[in-house]
Amino acid sequence: MRFDHSDLRLFLRVAEAGSITHGATLANMALPSASARLSSMEAMVGVTLLIRNRRGVELTPAGDALAHHARIILRQVEQMRGELGAYAKGLKAQVRLLANTGAITDFLPRMLAPYLASHPHVDIDLKERPSDEIVKAITRDYAEVGLISDAVDAGNLQKFPFATDGLCLVVAADHPLANPKYISFQEVLGEEFVGLSQGSPFQDLICDQAVQAGQPLSFRVRLPTFENVCLMVENRVGVGIMPETTARKYRRSMNIRLVKLTDAWAARRLSLCVRQLDALPPHTWELIQHLTSRPLADRDARD
Fold first, then answer.
1. Same domain assignment for residues 213 and 278
2. CA-based R_g, the chain, Å
3. CB-CB neighbours of 110 under 10 Å
4. 68 shares a domain with 104
């Protein structure tokens, strides 16, 4: 029985996505090639690893066993690469980092840049996911490090403070709601909204909160970036909700106002989470230390 590392990575991506199509995409592999590899793996071991159905795929008990050992093998390979990376030119280690929208938009670019510049032997596979999905992925060992909102239960994962960034309502400067400093989500549910495009984890969170409050949001338009949302808000198309740090950035150049949301779920603290800190390879340790080394207050959202 011989599986190469590409086989194992593909299998874990398919297991994580619950879909051969999406797993192949995550593994940067064409669907026919991925399907052929998976069938070959099943033929090699002589048992069914995946149950295929209309909704995607599920792991069989044998598939669970393979996924468990694949994680161990690939983690050891990454640890070897990390330890040898300083000595072997061209040998790369990788950290799989999952983060919610706020962390990716407002914090990670400026924080990851100096780390990557000083660690040329390390690559970071950064993906945007909702906080609850990140917890599941880290728990199942599909990724090493996650950045999540504290509003989500992290279960048995180890957590470390990362940043604070509450949510706010963004309105045009002459909007009737522009004057209050604070407002509850319930008070704005009747407004017409400008939101992020379908599939945005952040927008899904806001929509879920609206449904729980008993009044789904009414969108005039949905766009791919927070900058696009602010442009529409400035032109009185509707109102928007976004992280305060993001809104402050666009307030400098646009005629918009910020009103802080008073709801508990909107007062977000961001935390870094891992499955087991002492099991991580040195290069991942160094990334975690880099992301959490400064006092929390230094990374808090400020005017």
1. no
2. 22
3. 8
4. no
